[in-house]
Amino acid sequence: MRTWQIALIVFAMVVIASVYVFEQDYASKREWSVVQAAEMAGRNQPIQERIQYYNDREFGSVIGILDFEGRGRVWVLGNAKYGERLKILPTLASQEGLRVRITPTEFESIKDKVSLSDDVKEFLANSVQTGISKP
Question: Among 42, 50, 35, which Cα is nearest to 87's?
Fold first, then answer.
């Protein structure tokens, strides 16, 4: 094989890899946008239910779970497919390893209503506690 043919093959591989990485990054950003939209939509709504759902046609459901103090929600994308597999807002919750608290019944209800990735199932399973009172 000639040098220019090898260079052409290497160039083509670099272009294909770059396009793939760009598409993955772009899709991940779109998923984050869905989580942000859910957080914005639920921000000023009165807190009546412990669990809220925000549905997006392309990326599925975002789950809003009442935080420890009962003053706000932690939003989790149910089935992230690109980039980080656990997309949580506020990001402070994911960075510090903070957990939400849900009952076993709420966990089963979420699993019945939303397609969950393994990472989100694990996050929610680690958040299950008994004896939680309603807001």
Answer: 35
